[in-house]
Amino acid sequence: MPVKDSCAIVIFGASGDLTKRKLVPALFELHCQGLLPEGFAVLGVGRTAYSDEAFREAQREALEAFSKTVDATPEQREQFINKLFYESIDTSRREDYAAIRRRLTELDKSQGTSGNYLFYLSTPPALAAPIVSGLGAEHLQIPAHEGCWRRLIVEKPFGIDLKSATDLNHMLQAVFKEDQIFRIDHYLGKETVQNLLVFRFANGIFEPLWNRNYVDYVEITAAENIGVEDRGGYYEGSGALRDMVQNHMLQVVGMTAMEAPSSFDARAVRNETLKVFQSLRPITPENVQHHTIRGQYIASKIRGRDVSGYRQEKGVDAESRTETYAAVRFHIDNWRWGGVPFVVRTGKRLPTRVSEVVVHFKPTPHRIFGSLGTGENITNSLIIRIQPDEGVVLKFGLKRPGAGFEARSVAMDFHYSDLSDVRLPDAYERLLLDCLHGDATLFTRGDAVEACWAFVDPILEGWRSNPESKIYGYPGGTWGPPEADRLLGADGRTWRQPCKNLSENTDYCEL
Ligand code: BG6
Predict the structure, then answer these.
(1) Which of 23, 52, 321, 428 is 20 to 30 Å from 489 at the Cα level?
(2) Which atom of ligand 1 approaches the CA of 387 most closely?
(3) pLDDT of residue 115
């Protein structure tokens, strides 16, 4: 649906990486699809002293390098580029925000942006407070008239622990109302994460099985084959648990485990995911070694190529104890999930880039075919592939043709790529569009962020203070420390070894 309200997007951190790699290409795609309003402008804000023309030139190059939009005409490109403007300020100086107010008033007149402003914080976390109070000092958060809106998008990381996240919430809420604040988690913008909701709540056949009576365990993986690249400086202060688990992976847990909302609106959906986060059984610093495994990639040779270890990366301490791999086993203490283990794992420099949810169902109570001695142990699982080769696979047993009753595992699969007429939009396209529509369903609410930190904080504390909590080295190109198998218990449960290709299952390393 096209955005009906004319508006301006103000991007703080406009000379940064996210703007050129994600935000501008996403807006360009929306423009080409005719989804942006006629009265529209982007005001880039940053310390770098650009003129409008220099900023436009930089974004032209960015589109060249990062836009995936096909068939854009040169006219569409120029039309879009002409909607980009730039204001250079020192974000720490309150008086500089008057320049932003003046510039926005001008854009309202010249571009017809109608006083509707979306402020996008694409800046390091330390700049959030000065920017938000600068906007507050100019009353830019207050809609100028009835029917006009002001919104704020906040990028991750949202705090580094519960206290800093709570402080950040208070700071934002002192200026903006909660319903004006859109905390971005780009995993919620992924088509396949949203599909979890449709898959569960638009079908009658899966939901009756989606509980402790039928589910054995739930496994969620977000693996990457790259290392930390040039982000060592940031990653040192973060690690895999903060970088991926506290936000993206717990959001996926929320969507997988939530109850059906009473309706599909932001309040109802977010109330249900919050309940999941509030039901996470705490892992205490004292028992952290039984519920988590952390690892760090070490120097290795992958297919004859030398690959550096984490401690040799730029910006990383030579004795760093920051985890590049984290696996956590936990329970959700509610009626639906009582007794069902959830295991999540994420890591850098694993064999391939893959994110997926696997629901493993309980085996039959009595294995008559297994007892013939020739049959495999058939188990049923449902794999919801978030990326790549987005799709869904259901695994079940069938008779192997021929004599006897040997069972074999087969798969029924759906791949998004089979829908040749459908293009999967980038997460930022979806999230920017939703925010311009004022729909917060796919954004994280303040209370949910705090509930996730409340779960993660004691793990971090345990890793820091519990002498029994070790950090294991793992060679690049492997599935992390083998000790992670321990989290699955002794009942024959195993981690899936997914490939890039959803339907394949072979030993594979893409590095
Ligand atoms: C980011 C993390 O939030 O998500 C990165 O900071 C990580 O470290 C990235 O690489 C993964 O996102 P995606 O969409 O590539 O799975």
Answers:
(1) 321
(2) 16
(3) 96
Model confidence pLDDT, tens digit, residues 99-141 = 999 999 999 999 999 999 999 999 988 899 999 999 999 999 9
CA distance 154 to 498: 33
- Is the Cβ atom of 243 under 6 angstroms away from ligand 1? yes
The answer, yes or no, to whether any atom of ligand 1 lies below 6 A from the CB of 192, is no
Helix H or strand E encompassing 297: strand 292-298
- In this prediction, residue 171 carries a pLDDT of 97
Distance CA 261, CA 253 (A): 15
Q: How many CB atoms lie within 10 A of CB 102?
A: 12
Q: How many CB atoms lie within 10 A of CB 71?
A: 6
C-alpha 19 – ligand 1 centre gap (Å): 16
Distance CA 416, CA 223 (A): 20
Neighbouring CB atoms inside 10 A of 489's CB total: 12
* Pocket residue to mutate for ligand 1, from 244, 344, 353, most atoms within 8 A of Cβ: 244
What residues are annotated to the active site? 248
169-222 pLDDT, tens digit per residue, is: 999 999 999 999 999 999 999 999 999 999 999 999 999 999 999 999 999 999
Distance, CA of 354 to CA of 497 (rounded, Å): 10
CB 474 within 8 Å of CB 297: yes
Give the closest residue (by CA) to ligand 1 atom 15: 224
Q: Note the Cα 153 to chain centre separation in Å.
A: 15
CA of 317 to the centre of ligand 1 (A): 22
269: exposed, middle or buried (Cβ count in 10 Å: 0-12, 13-18, 19+): buried
Q: Is 155's C-beta closer than 6 angstroms to any atom of ligand 1? A: no
d(CA 187, CA 252): 8
How many whole angstroms from 248 Cα to the centroid of ligand 1? 9
Angle at 375 between CA 369 and CA 377, to 5 degrees: 85
Number of helices followed by number of strands (H, E) in the chain: 15, 17
Residue 355 Cβ contacting ligand 1 at under 6 Å: yes
Predicted confidence at residue 509, as pLDDT, reads 43
- Dihedral pair phi/psi, residue 173, rounded to 5°: -75, -15
Closest listed residue to residue 187, CA positions, set 276, 135, 254: 254
pTM greater than 0.70: yes
Alpha carbon distance 327, 337 (integer Å) = 20
Tokens of 194: 């949203």
d(C-alpha 13, C-alpha 130), whole Å:
13
Helix, strand, coil tally for the chain in percent (to 5): 40, 20, 40
**Residue 419, pLDDT score:** 85
Mutate to test the pocket of ligand 1, among 18, 21, 158, 186 (most ligand atoms within 8 A of CB): 186
